[in-house]
Amino acid sequence: MNKPTLFISLLFLVTIHCKAQEQASESKVMDWEKYDPPSTLVVPEHEVKKAKYPFIDVHNHQFSMPTQDLNELTADMDKLNMAVMVNLSGRGRGSEKHLRGSIENVNKTAPSRFIVFTNIDISDINKKDWTKNTVEQIENDVKLGANGLKIYKSQTMAVVDGERISINDPRIDPVWAKCGELGIPVLIHAADPKPFWDAHDENNERWLELKVRPNRKREDNDPAPWQTIIDEQHDIFKKHPETKFINAHLGWYANDLATLAHLMDIYPNMYTEIGAVIAELGRQPRAANAFITKYQDRVMFGKDSWNPEEYYTYFRVLETADEYFPYYKRYHAFWKMYGLNLSDEVLKKLYYKNALNVIPNIDRSLFPD
Question: Which of 106, 170, 183, 369 could bond to 114 as cystine, CB 3.0-4.6 Å?
Answer without folding.
Answer: 106
